[in-house]
Write a structure and sequence with these properties.
The structure is a single chain. The strands form two sheets. The protein has a seven-stranded antiparallel β-sheet. A six-stranded mixed β-sheet has the order 8-9-11-12-13-10. Among the domains are: 88 residues, Ribbon (Umud Fragment, subunit A), CATH 2.10.109; 111 residues, no CATH class. By secondary structure, it is an alpha+beta fold. Helix 3 crosses helix 5. The chain contains nine helices and 13 strands.
């Protein structure tokens, strides 16, 4: 039996290590993508190689139309015929080069009958057209002019990170037990902390919206974009700290504390229900929650008739894991039953 239990624990521990490795691989893959994006596609406002512009007007038709998103890259030299993005009187114009010297350049819209009236220094050229995404700029303009839409989109993408696409697969004996079980709602922690958590989430989303608007308006990275990104980082860190505090339910007494830790995983079953198979005790509620998350199985809650002993059990294919809260010990030590 000892070897059987040891093998089962090793299996779950291996699953835990595999999940940790998978998370690291995902993190490293994301980091590699971000690094590759920064050195190839990052906007110039972040000191990247690209500048993004949304076409407005008819001067470059039929090559470019209103709403097209254009990516331009800084080049060491330009020639007649290149389509370039230039800075003109505080604005941006994307036209074709028709004359160039060692110091200056003249441009013209291909749909215009006349050359642009200005002569620009080469330093006014932001870059040469390298990619065009037809009508994609229309959606960027929508996000820039409608912060609420941008915030909802950012929140929706953030919510997707919380969704686990894996389907739950329960063993036959666990399905039979759950047929007589009731989903149990745990007591919540202090309401004001939940409001703080929501506020931090909104702050993070708002900071992301602000950062997106600043980048869309080609705002310099220092200091406004940096401060906005700092707001995102601070709010996310604070969200994580408050979330961890709430997850530990330190403001509640047992068994409410353990029940709050288990959250939506909890199912109440009758004390007379027999759970077959060997059972291995665990030391903490967090450890039991880990086993539940690894196996994608619920946590069964059994209460003794005198309401003093609460057993929380995770049923796996080979071995059960149990965490026990014995309130009789507190009753004996304090002379009363905490509620």
């Amino acid at each position: 039996m000892a070897n059987y239990q040891l093998a089962s624990r090793r299996l779950l521990h291996e699953r835990a290590r595999a999940r940790t490795r998978r998370h690291w691989y995902e993190f490293l893959a994301l980091l590699a993508v971000l690094v590759a994006w920064y050195f190839t596609l990052a906007p110039s406002s972040l000191n990247g190689p690209m500048t993004y512009a949304v076409v407005s007007g008819h001067s470059m038709e039929p090559s470019l139309y209103t709403g097209d998103l254009v990516m331009v890259q800084k080049e060491s030299s330009y020639k007649v015929g290149d389509t370039v993005l230039t800075e003109v009187m505080g604005g941006m114009v994307i036209h074709r080069v028709v004359w160039i010297s060692s110091a200056n350049v003249k441009t013209q819209g291909i749909n215009n009958d006349f050359v642009d009236t200005w002569t620009l220094p080469l330093s006014a050229i932001k870059g040469k057209q390298v990619f065009v995404f037809k009508q994609l700029g229309t959606y960027f303009v929508l996000l820039r002019t409608n912060p609420l839409v941008f915030g909802l989109l950012a929140s929706g993408l953030g919510a997707l990170l919380l969704v686990d696409p894996r389907r739950k697969k329960y063993s036959k004996r666990l399905i039979e037990i759950l047929e007589s079980a009731d989903h149990e709602v745990a007591k919540k922690t202090k309401t004001y902390l939940n409001k703080v958590l929501v506020g931090l989430y909104v702050l993070a989303g708002g900071s992301l919206v602000s950062t997106g608007i600043l980048l869309a308006n080609h705002t310099k990275f220092f200091p406004r974009v940096l401060l906005s990104l700092s707001g995102v980082a601070v709010s996310i860190v604070a969200f994580e700290l408050v979330g961890n505090w709430l997850a530990s339910a330190k403001d509640l007494d047992e068994p409410d504390r353990s029940m709050a830790i288990f959250g939506s995983h909890l199912y109440r079953i009758k004390s007379e229900v027999q759970i077959p198979g060997p059972t291995q005790p665990v030391a903490t509620a967090s450890e039991l929650l880990t086993y539940s998350e690894i196996g994608k199985t619920p946590i069964l809650h059994i209460v003794s008739e005198d309401n003093l002993i609460h057993r929380f059990i995770v049923v796996t294919d080979s071995l059960n894991y149990a965490y026990t809260v014995d309130l009789s010990k507190e009753t004996n030590s304090k002379g009363r039953h905490k509620k």
